[in-house]
């Protein structure tokens, strides 16, 4: 009996030796984890499981690469403790010598949204209650007409978000195709911010089709022109675009020096191999916001740092200008803005050596000084000089004006027409040259009143109402041009 038992155990041991390696190999290739990527908020928990085929494997050892960010217990329960990234690994001993590991990448971020006037009036208490912790709010777009291109909801959004304890940043949508335009967009953005404190960056949004033909070097110069001016004003900056554009045209070292806000929707994580601090991952329904809203995660606690806010210089002798040493107007940019940085409590004075070439006007006070507006009037060259009313210090630069092409306007009712008293009509106006933003002027407002201009292909629609009796001209003015007669209207 003992011999038989001994033989049996010997045969059994030999069989185990033969089959164990095959078992181990099968086990390693069939070892899976329930999730390979997870996006979490601080305080969230998640359960991970490991399988071999369809069978759950419970005899595993769990570990986190960054326990300060993510902890995992002995049963695979993951807890997000702080903002950051970590890898959670499950390891199982398969057989005597083979070790099997699978892992899950975990990002712990701060949930936020970005909004503009397109979302209408936002119910910010509902947004806060939904768990949103930051909002990036649009200041405006481009720079051709500051008044018309400022986001109409910026004021309301800033007040609503801050009143409800939501950290705020800002973004400006760019149409800049050169450094001068980018610098002007920065000035416009700062004029909208008016020195307000921000917790999150001021972001340069570069994604428009006008940028598609520009090289990486050109885009680097454009980004740097905007962001460096924003930094000079005292704000932190970042650059926003979608993955493909970033990988193709935002590769310059001039871009890499600023924080990255990457957009990539419909993926578990961005297909982007450079560092980024924010990720726009989808558009979703958010309580309190009309329509679908862009949603984001921030992987840097901007709100945990000191708020950014421009301040006036403390040195009374500081009197500097943001203007270029020389600037040439184009038909597409009849306006130029520059900022005087100074501690002066009184606005400086600015004059043009030739108002027929360029006119200069005070625009507004800024957090760190004053902004002036130069308007293209005609051909030639002029010197713009700005002088401190306190110290007498002055700075100057030159502007060059081009001959303004003659513009003829046509309407869908001809050069003269008649309306009945009380009648309203949306007049279509088509110019021979389109450049800048149009302003319509009515010679006799007692006869005719005008409404809000709307752009259309090849011109504009101008709503008019026959409010009185008589005849009046309608003029159009674009940029620095003199008003031009559009039509004569008789109201009967």
TrEMBL record:
SMART domains: BID_2
Residue stretches making up the BIG2 domain: 27-101
PROSITE patterns documented for this protein: GLYCOSYL_HYDROL_F25_2
GO terms assigned for molecular function: lysozyme activity
One annotated GO biological process: peptidoglycan catabolic process
SUPFAM superfamilies assigned to the protein according to its UniProt record, in alphabetical order: (Trans)glycosidases, Invasin/intimin cell-adhesion fragments
Keywords: Hydrolase, Signal
Signal sequence, start to end: 1-24
Family: Belongs to the glycosyl hydrolase 25 family.
Name of the featured protein: Glycosyl hydrolase family 25
């Amino acid at each position: 009996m003992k011999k038989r038992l001994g033989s049996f155990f010997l045969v059994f041991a030999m069989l185990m030796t033969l089959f164990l390696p095959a078992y181990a190999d099968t086990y390693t290739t069939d070892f899976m984890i329930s999730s390979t990527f997870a996006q979490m908020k601080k305080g969230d928990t998640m359960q991970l499981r490991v399988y071999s085929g369809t069978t759950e494997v419970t005899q595993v050892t769990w570990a986190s690469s960054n326990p300060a960010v993510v902890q995992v217990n002995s049963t695979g329960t993951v807890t997000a403790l702080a903002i950051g990234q970590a890898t959670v690994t499950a390891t199982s001993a398969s057989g005597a010598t083979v070790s099997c590991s699978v892992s899950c990448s975990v990002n712990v971020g701060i949930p936020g949204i970005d909004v503009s006037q397109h979302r209408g009036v936002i119910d910010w208490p509902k947004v806060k209650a939904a768990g949103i912790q930051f909002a990036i709010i649009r200041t405006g777009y481009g720079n051709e007409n500051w008044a018309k291109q400022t986001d109409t909801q910026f004021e309301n959004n800033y007040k609503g978000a801050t009143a409800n304890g939501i950290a705020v940043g800002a973004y400006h949508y760019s149409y800049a195709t050169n450094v001068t335009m980018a610098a002007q967009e920065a000035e416009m953005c700062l004029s909208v911010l008016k020195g307000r404190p921000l917790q999150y960056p001021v972001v340069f949004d570069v994604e428009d089709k006008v940028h598609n033909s520009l090289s990486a070097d050109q885009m680097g110069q454009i980004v740097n022109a905007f962001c460096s001016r924003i930094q000079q004003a005292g704000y932190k900056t970042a650059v926003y675009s979608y993955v493909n554009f970033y990988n193709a045209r935002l590769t310059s070292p001039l871009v890499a020096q600023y924080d990255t806000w990457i957009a990539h929707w419909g993926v578990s994580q961005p297909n982007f191999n450079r560092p980024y601090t924010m990720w726009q991952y989808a558009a979703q329904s958010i309580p309190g916001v009309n329509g679908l809203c862009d949603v984001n995660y921030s992987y840097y606690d901007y709100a945990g740092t000191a708020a950014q806010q421009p301040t006036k210089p403390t040195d009374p002798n500081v009197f500097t200008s943001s203007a270029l040493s020389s600037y040439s107007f184009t038909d597409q940019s009849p306006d130029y803005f520059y900022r005087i940085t100074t501690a002066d409590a009184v606005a400086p004075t600015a004059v043009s050596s030739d108002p027929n070439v360029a006119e200069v006007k005070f625009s507004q006070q800024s957090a760190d000084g004053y902004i002036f507006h130069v308007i293209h009037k005609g051909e030639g060259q002029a010197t713009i000089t700005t002088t401190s009313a306190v110290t007498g210090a002055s700075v100057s630069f030159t502007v060059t004006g081009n001959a303004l092409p003659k513009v003829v306007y046509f309407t869908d009712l001809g050069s003269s027409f008649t309306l009945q008293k009380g009648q309203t009509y949306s007049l279509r106006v088509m110019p021979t040259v389109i450049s800048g933003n149009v302003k319509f002027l009515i010679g006799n407002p007692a006869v005719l009143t005008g409404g809000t201009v709307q752009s259309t292909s090849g011109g504009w629609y101008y709503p008019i109402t026959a409010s009185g009796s008589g005849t009046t001209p309608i003029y159009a003015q674009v940029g620095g041009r003199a008003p031009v007669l559009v039509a004569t209207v008789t109201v009967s």
